[in-house]
Amino acid sequence: MRRLFLVALPMLALAACQAPSQAPASRSVVFFTNDSAALDENAAGLVSEVAGRAKASPGAPIRVRGFTAPDGSAGFNRALAEARARNVADVLVAAGIERSRIRIEPRGPVSYEMIPTESRRVEILLGG
């Protein structure tokens, strides 16, 4: 029993010295009008708020996921999802976030959620 304690004690000390695990991701959602990648005033304000949180967590990665509603052609929806995500990423960069921290993930069309406008969105995941 004593031998087990002597082995476990250094392991516990080593674990205590290691860096804490990364905080879970925070998720913010920006909504768009139909067939548009333009950010309105509210959306731009939300992205600016996310930029402020990102500056407070300089090592945290940022994922920007673009979505569209299922209407229209697959090609149009893929391009629109990417344009939405890129526009959000551009606002983050303009607010002082390094582009190298941002990963753009166009997801394309998704089926309608509870409210059709929920499908026309960009999710910003900070950290995690």
UniProtKB/TrEMBL annotation:
Gene3D superfamilies attached to this UniProt entry: OmpA-like domain
Keyword Membrane: yes
Keywords: Cell outer membrane, Membrane, Signal
Signal peptide: 1-15
Domain OmpA-like: 19-128
Keyword Signal: yes
Protein localization: Cell outer membrane
Primary location class: membrane
Protein name: OmpA family protein
Organism, as annotated: Belnapia arida
